[in-house]
């Protein structure tokens, strides 16, 4: 019983605290994805990632052709091979397949690492601009606009255009 009433009191205080915060301070929200996608540098990042992805895909495809060619040659010649030669060729094919699978995993990891490396400076610029606008406007918190289901215009301010201005981005009509 004590625990139940204590939980109710804590929940009441939490809700009261949220209500007081909403009434005493402004919060902002912004569309960070739109800001990022609108940065001129973002297009260059996408081009670099696409170029690297194409190179990786070509290398993977070349390796697959190599494996298929060796498998076809083995299948055509296996009736003429000794048991020892068959075992050796099958081992070679198994190793090639394992190398192929490892190459795919490595390329995927390398591409993800490159994406983080290229996007982090842009994300940092967006974050710094958001912080600057929030500080200038005296906001208590800034939320992602896609996480908000409802925001009254008294306590929540859309700062996307302000952040875009700090970043030197101009939106086309209706882009926000």
Write structural notes for this entry:
The chain has five helices and three strands, in the order αβαααββα. By secondary structure, it is mainly α. It has a single domain, classed as Protein Binding, DinI Protein, Chain A (2-Layer Sandwich), CATH 3.30.910.
Radius of gyration over all CA atoms, rounded: 28 Å
Helix segment tally: 5
Q: H/E series, N to C? A: HEHHHEEH
Helical content stands at: over 70%
Set down the secondary structure blueprint.
Elements: H1 2-24, E1 27-30, H2 32-38, H3 40-77, H4 83-137, E2 141-144, E3 156-158, H5 160-167
Short description:
74% of the residues lie in helices and 6% in strands. It is built from five helices and three strands.
Which labels suit this protein?
three-stranded parallel beta sheet, rod-shaped, Protein Binding, DinI Protein, Chain A, disordered N terminus, 176 residues, mainly alpha
